[in-house]
Amino acid sequence: MRITSRRGAIAFFVCLGIGLVALAIALNVGWIILNWREGVLLFFGIVFFALIIAGMVVNTIFLVRELRRSEQHDSFINAVTHELKTPVASIRLHLETLQRRQLPEQQKQEFYSLMLSDTDRLAETVEQVLRAGRAGDKRAGREKSAVDFRQLVRDCMEAARTRHHLQQGALRYAEALTNGNGLRVRGSQEDLRTAVFNVLDNAIKYSGQNLDVEVRLEAPDNKRIVLRVQDHGIGIPPEDVKRIFKRFYRVTHRSLAHVKGTGLGLFIVKAITQKHGGKVFAESEGEGKGTTVTIELPRMDGDSEDMRSQA
Q1: 145-308 has which fold?
Q2: Residues whose CB is less than 8 angstroms from the CB of residue 284 and which lie 6 or more positions away in sequence, other chains included
Q3: Cβ atoms of residues 225 and 297 within 8 Å
Q4: What Å distances lie between residue 284 and 204, 217, 229, CA to CA?
Q5: What would the pLDDT profile of 84-115 be if each residue is shown by its tens digit?
Q6: Phi and psi for 298 in degrees, rounded to 5?
Q7: Does this model's pTM top 0.70?
């Protein structure tokens, strides 16, 4: 109901803005026709008219943006609430069952495993929110060191396989190194690990039944390291490709109803990438045609010298 009411409000403000602009134009044109001989008044009238029109346009744009931001914020609150309440309810149910009944040891171990899984889910949700807060802090993550990006990507892939219980072939790795073997980045290892893992996690979650994700690491020149994560899943509508990196934004589609999340994962990826002097973007040919997310990072100075000394 809230989303419907907000969309109605957006439509109202857009129509109101258009109506006011049309009315102002009509009044101004009428005024010009009646006073066309008064040059000075005509000049100032046109100037004030332009300012009024600009003010109404800016006001309408601002109202629409605020309504959309409020809608996204509410969606985020609902998602986080669900992500917190569901595992808490599950843990409570299992604990009450253990307290009230005498269960076989095997079933107890199953309950313990489920509760640990729910605890991990809770911790991940809280950590995502905290990371989003740190991502908006320009002072955070200034401590930087040399990071072996190749090893970091492989470690993230193993973590993703473990978390999602994947077969080896479901998440494939490839390299295209045309400029030697040095793949170091200067930055925060923890932040870069978070960014890479979030991209992998997204690719797996949005693959649907066709789980086939390729992770490709490239070094096209001595200045860049490029990571491409390509899935063959549900894809992204063209109008959503540039929006998926915004805070709280989630693609709304029926096929995504089962996918849980806070809408912060790719926002965190973008913030971390930009802090490291890089960029991130997504490509998709449309729904059902998969998605490729690309991260470009500056290659650490000295890799080329290291490669020449090793040769």
Answers
A1: Heat Shock Protein 90 (3.30.565)
A2: 235, 236, 238, 241, 290, 291, 292
A3: yes
A4: 15, 19, 12
A5: 777 888 888 888 888 888 888 888 888 888 88
A6: -65, 135
A7: no
